[in-house]
Request: fold
Amino acid sequence: MLSHRIRTFIAAVIYVVFAIPCQAKDPITLMAHSTGPGQWVGHYAEPLNEQDLKPFVGQYLLTGQWPKGVNRPDDPKLLLGRQKLGATRVVAVKVEEGGHLVRLTTDPVVSPEVHQLTIGDVTLAVAFWGLSVKIGVVDQPDHGPKMVLPMLMDRKKLAEYAGFEPALKAVESAWIDPKQPLMMHGWLRLAEGEHELTFLSGREFTLEINGEKTGSKAAGGRYFASLKLESAGTEMELKVVLPATELPISETDFWEVTKPARKGSAASSQVLSMENFLVPWAPEAAPEATLAIAPPPYDLTGGDGVKGRQVFYSEAAKCANCHAVDGQGGKIGPDLTGLRGADRSLVFHHINAPSDRIHPGYPSFSVALKGGQVSMGVVRSVDALNLEIVDTDAKVLKVSSADVEELRPSTSSVMPSGLAGTLGEPAMRDLLEFLTVKPK
Ligand code: HEC
Reply:
């Protein structure tokens, strides 16, 4: 479910708030949108004060390492790459275009709560929510351009942000030009209980909530669908399909969701808050809780730990190129000494299907360089200006951070898959004995 969402949808809306606790200044508020899972771009009309954001400027904060010479690397507050915004890991922050643009790179999976992190004098608060938008063929999720619709219910805001970003401009013109089909997708989260919602649009639409379809009705030159929803308090999948039509829509007509106004209010309805719309890849629960592991294909007990040690350090298995046990071995992946006492079937699963649960301290990235080259691997900062990319063969590529065009989190582990099959049953049993049992 989760990976399906990650694969299928690439865009949403977030707000990024840089609140600088300095009396003379007001907090800086950035609104940003996502251009893909884990990729967020914030725009700011006034240039950000580079001095305040100095720890961020032009720096990639990678896998727990703060670039040398920027700040005390032993200060845990500064290790943004190791810190999390709630369940979401921020791995890079970059300020571009003279302070007008902030790029945030996070885990591909974001958690929907608002999170805060203080680094030096700057507090970073991020809320991830919104709807993704796709223009073009609506039934083929991987076809055609996909983009974000920021401030879904705010026509003016969309126009403002469309000025910053050509892709948003495309969404805006697709909205105004009804000859273009549009699909909006996201997750709706309402408090437990019964809700009455009205969806309004300048264009005819079909609504799909948790798989149930409702068509829109025309009234007063607009289209609407009113429905009663019983919410369990968890997320409901929401799809809004706006097929192509020849009918023009008015410039002022936009998409809106309303609920009945509170008692005592003069208005009859109020707009549903943006916070009720979650990014498509927001997890329903903590990511750990959603994954089940397959039972191992054979009995994992009864191996020989001494032989297992040989397997671990062998050329065939290559484990020690990347992992250490008792201080001996590579540092590309986590130290495996801590696996003693661990559940064998879980360790087997890690070896057999590494991308299923990627260790949060070792996210992998696809790194696009300015020359067009793309590399995949664990990314580490050597110093303020240089990065190392370690690939699945444990080969190290050194690049200057100035040459990095884009850093994109990947859902594949750097650890090669299929090692369990290559090693075979007896060697795997020995290896598991070595990894999970403390030698006498
Ligand atoms: C090219 C480097 C590389 C090789 C070779 C490699 N691994 Fe890994 N391994 C990693 C990385 C990076 C991670 C962390 C990311 C992840 O969880 O997939 C990892 C994760 C793991 C984990 C999960 C640890 C945890 O705490 O979540 C286990 C267990 C593991 N490797 C065992 C092995 C064994 C056994 C071998 C040899 C048969 C091996 N690895 C070969 C890079 C490698």
Remarks:
- Residues 366 and 376 are 4 Å apart (CA to CA).
- Residues 317-319, 321-323, 332-334, 336, 347, 350-351, 354, 358-359, 362, 378, 392, 394, 413-416, 419, 431 surround heme C (CB under 6 Å).
